[in-house]
Design brief:
The chain is of the alpha+beta class. It has 2 domains: about 5-180, 2-Layer Sandwich (Ribosomal Protein S5, domain 2), CATH 3.30.230.10; about 185-310, 2-Layer Sandwich (Alpha-Beta Plaits), CATH 3.30.70. The chain is about 40% helix and about 25% strand. It has helices at about 65-70, 75-85, 110-125, 130-145, 155-160, 195-205, 210-230, 235-250, 255-270, 295-305; strands spanning about 10-20, 30-45, 50-55, 95-100, 165, 170-175, 180-185, 275, 285-290, 305-310, 320. A hairpin with a 7-residue loop joins β8 and β9 (about 285-290). The chain binds (3R)-3-hydroxy-3-methyl-5-(phosphonooxy)pentanoic acid. (3R)-3-hydroxy-3-methyl-5-(phosphonooxy)pentanoic acid binds next to α5 and α6.
């Protein structure tokens, strides 16, 4: 047989939730930005009926839970791919190769970015102009299999890029943020399951109605104020709101000792604000601060046992090459 058939490449960014994780699952507004860490999928035609997905560079595949439970870690992505092919009446198989620079199971939306990168690659391969809403629905297929009851914010942010406000009932709103946003991420290196963290926090909220009511009321105000800070470029104000959000996340059991240590270290080094991002219980925290404090914040996180890195907001979302 001849050489390889042409491959189509898709990229999709990770996300960091600035405000509102967990509460968004029950309907609150969350705010997230896409960040410049990317998942990459390359897709080529394969014999009819064959969907092959491989990821030699990924530690435990795009579906860590599938891998741990002994199932096929790529089945959620294969289901999504089948749904794409069916929806567009494509009677062809595909070969998909994945790579990613996004830490897995760390709160940065790696599984969503991988799903979106596949959809981007498939749309390029078959010359289909996928609307963002269609892409959102399709990526939800694998996200639901992996995470149980996700809000949708991870893949929404990866698709749209930039800064978005999202709630399951309102959908997304792109925020007009002119400034560049730099985040320091601190990885605890402790991996955890989003699904289990979400169940744990939802259970806490159900059993503690008083705390839940107060927290939801405050989160509503925090989200509104955070949107206005972002649109005005008021990073100091945003930082104060992130700190308040972290206190609420701690109260409902989403944080961890390691996260608290890294958050404390970032604040000591002059961060405006620091909090866990994503499901918590491990994974990553984020900090924002003045330009001149960023080196110190990274160093402080390192000394506290975390792995720091610096990321910027991605303004574009997914790309097809
Ligand atoms: O940990 P991640 O990157 O999967 O983010 C989860 C965010 C939650 O709000 C906890 C769940 C969700 O679906 O919104």
């Amino acid at each position: 047989m001849g050489g390889e058939s042409a491959r189509s490449i898709g990229f999709a960014p990770a996300k960091a939730i600035l405000i509102g994780e967990h509460f968004v699952v029950s309907g609150a507004i969350a705010i997230a930005i896409a960040i410049n860490l990317y998942a990459k999928a390359s897709a080529a035609l394969a014999p009819r009926g064959s969907i092959s997905i491989s990821a030699p560079g990924l530690v435990d595949g795009a579906g860590p839970r599938g891998a741990r439970s002994g199932g096929d870690p790529f089945e959620p992505l294969a289901s999504m791919t089948r749904a794409f092919l069916e929806r567009y009446g494509i009677d062809q198989g595909v070969d998909i190769r994945l790579s990613s620079e996004i830490p897995l199971s760390a709160g940065l939306g790696s599984s969503a970015a991988i799903a979106v990168s596949i959809l981007a690659a498939l749309s390029g391969l078959f010359g289909i102009r996928l609307g963002r809403e269609e892409m959102f629905d399709l990526a939800f297929i694998s996200e639901r299999i992996l995470h149980g009851n996700p809000s949708g914010i991870d893949h929404a942010t990866s698709i749209y890029g930039g800064a978005i406000a999202y709630s399951p009932s309102m959908g997304f709103r792109r925020l007009s943020v002119d400034c560049d946003i730099t985040l320091i991420i601190g990885d605890t290196l402790r991996r955890r399951s989003t699904r289990e963290q979400v169940l744990k926090v939802q259970d806490f909220l159900k059993r503690n109605e008083g705390i839940a009511r107060e927290a939801f009321e405050r989160i509503r105000e925090i989200s509104e104020m955070a949107i206005s800070c972002l649109e005005k470029g008021d990073m100091r104000g945003l930082g104060a709101l992130m700190n308040e959000n972290q206190a609420l996340l701690s109260k409902v059991g989403a944080s961890s000792r390691e996260l608290d240590r890294l958050i404390g270290a970032a604040l000591e080094a002059g961060a405006f604000g620091a909090k866990l991002t994503g499901a918590g219980g491990g994974g990553c925290m984020i900090a924002i601060g003045p330009q001149e404090a960023l080196d110190g914040i990274e160093e402080s996180i390192r000394r506290a046992g975390g792995v720091p890195y610096r990321v910027r907001m991605d303004k574009v979302g997914y790309r097809v090459c």
